[in-house]
Design goal:
The chain is an alpha/beta fold. It has one domain: ComB-like (putative 2-phosphosulfolactate phosphatase, Alpha-Beta Complex), CATH 3.90.1560. The protein is 37% helix and 20% strand. The chain is built from eleven helices and eleven strands. The strands form two sheets. Strands 9-1-8-2-7-10-11 form a seven-stranded mixed β-sheet, sandwiched between helices. Strands 3-6-4-5 form a four-stranded mixed β-sheet. α6 (127-134) crosses α7 and α7 (153-167) crosses α8. The relative contact order is 0.24.
Amino acid sequence: MDIRIIPFASAVQPEEVTGKTIVVIDVLRATSVIITALENGAKQIYPVLSVEEAEELAGKFATGTYLLCGERDTQKIEGFDLGNSPLEFRQDKVAGKTLIITTSNGTKALDACRDSEKVYIGAFLNARAVAEKVKEKKEGVLVCSGTAGRFSLDDGLCAAMIIEELAKSVPVHPDDLGLALIKVWQSVNGNLQKLLKDSFHLNYLLKKGFNADVDYCLQKNSTSVVPVFSGIEIILS
């Protein structure tokens, strides 16, 4: 399997993703939120770019059937029901609900992949399950959402973990960025605490008080749930 890594959302070029099998990764925290929400019974999730778009879309649903979710600069958007903490997306909150979500990075990456053949949602939480979904493909693109238009190591290491999981069952041929990330990953046997202790995004979240979110998002293979994005909505695959 030929594998290409795209380092951050704004680096996505249409010709690199159109008609391709994609995995979008935003470990801290959007894709971890999406996985958790669907695992806890959310009906469907609509990712959008702006607060205004989220509020406009909400007007198409009956009161009580949807939740507005999202963040700007890590904080819940004023007037929204939920932020971007996976710990908020409990079964008693989201089961049976339509979620409309906008985040600083993850929803941008998803928007850039709307014309792809198939878009899966990946994180450390479901890396092995994602690999199982895409292993029969001849090629795949792992899109790291990044942070504020820059590469984020947590996303890159998740891409490396997915490649490692794929390599257990099929031959893999990563691009140079993929090769570099795998070497980093293998240098300490995937010890995330060591690998990420000095990383910007993780430490920014810790500074903002999201320690529990970080711990949750760094769990490996805790679920077999793999969301899929149709270009409009995200549902269980």
